[in-house]
Amino acid sequence: GANPGPVCSVCQSDAAFGFPSASEVLGQIEIFCVDDDAINLIVLRGLLQPEGYLLQTSMSGQDFFEVVGRRGYLPDLLLLDVMMPVMSGHEVCQQLRLLYPTTRLPVIMISANTGKTSIIEGLESGCNDYVTKPFDRRELVARITTQLRLKSLWRLELDRAQELGLLRRMLPDHVITRLKSTEADGGIVVDRHESVTVLFSDIVDYTALAATIPNEQLVSLLNRMFAGFDDLCDRHACYKVETVGDAYMVVAGHEGGAGAE
Fold first, then answer.
1. I need a surface site. Which of 140, 170, 175, 260 has the fewest CB within 10 A?
2. What is residue 76's DSSP assignment?
3. What is the rounded distance in angstroms from the CA atom of residue 43 to the CA atom of residue 65?
């Protein structure tokens, strides 16, 4: 197989997984251009700066990784030349994909090679799109805009999934469905419950107890206790809101049943 090239330090660091995008840090979209030809970097700057993008440039893959690792945030999109010495664009992209999916850091490869084989190699190495030199400004800007829009949509879907996950930790599914439906219609949910009981309990002196018994015994104790609580919740139509550490929270009566009695 192909020589994987030098391994970048940022790819060896778990901290790289938490790097935000430049727009989250700087409030403006940044495009990072990596090309070993200084003239090409000047041309790209001239094409993209008038579009309102921040431009960062580098003449090698190694320098790109060093800059990102040093400053602690990613570009919003990477324009990456294919043919570079020491570390090719394919190798840079392959190492990036060990950390970031195509939706997290879009990569557009640039090359003078218009052959189908070169394009396929670029896509197989993990790039999102491929443009050829000499650059057509309208085509380049359109491809960049498309990738940034797709990234934004992915971010929106991820935020929605995280929001839904949080709601499911606190509310029954039918309540979430009602909230979403009402929100879509532009309304709000306002209910009145005549008799509702909220129970919050925890273990007295839990911290001291945890310090005096083995972890395995502590976990077993909590599991037995929570299993008993779960059984009582099912038996009396109560809803478990949350379990954190030694704390247990349940609600009854909000559905109009007998659980509040």
1. 170
2. S
3. 22
Tokens of 156: 């929106």
Structure tokens given for 64: 């790109």
Strand partners, 109: 80, 130
Report the 10 Å Cβ neighbour count for 254: 18
Which domains can be identified in the chain, with CATH numbers?
Answer: 10-165 (3.40.50.2300), 191-260 (3.30.70.1230)
pTM, two decimal places: 0.59
SS (H, E, C) 165-199: HHHHHHCCHHHHHHHHHHHHCCCCCCCCCCCCEEE
* Max intra-chain CA distance, the chain: 79
Q: Write out pLDDT tens, residues 219-254.
A: 888 888 888 888 888 888 787 776 667 777 787 776
Phi, psi values for residue 249, rounded to 5° = -130, 130
- The pLDDT of residue 256: 52
Q: Which residues of the chain have pLDDT under 50?
A: 1-17, 257-261
Note the pLDDT of residue 255.
63
